[in-house]
Amino acid sequence: MKEEDIRPQDVFGRYLELAQADARDYFQDKYRFRAVACPACGTKRSRPAFDKDGFAYVFCDACHSLYNSPRPAPEMIARYYQEAPSVKFWATDFYKATEDSRREKIFIPRAAYLSDLAQRYGLARGSFLDLGCGYGTLLEEVQKTGAFAQVQGVDCSPPLAAVCRGKGFQVAEKRIEDLQPGEFQASLTASFEVLEHLFEPAAFLRGALRVMNAEGLLVVTTLTCNGFDIRVLGRHSKAVQPPYHLNLLSLEGVRLLLQRCGFEILEMETPGRLDVDIVRNALAVDASLAVAPFLRDIVQSDDEGLRQAFQDFLAAHRLSSHLRVVARPLPGN
Question: What would the pLDDT profile of 167-178 be if each residue is shown by its tens digit?
Answer without folding.
Answer: 999 999 888 999
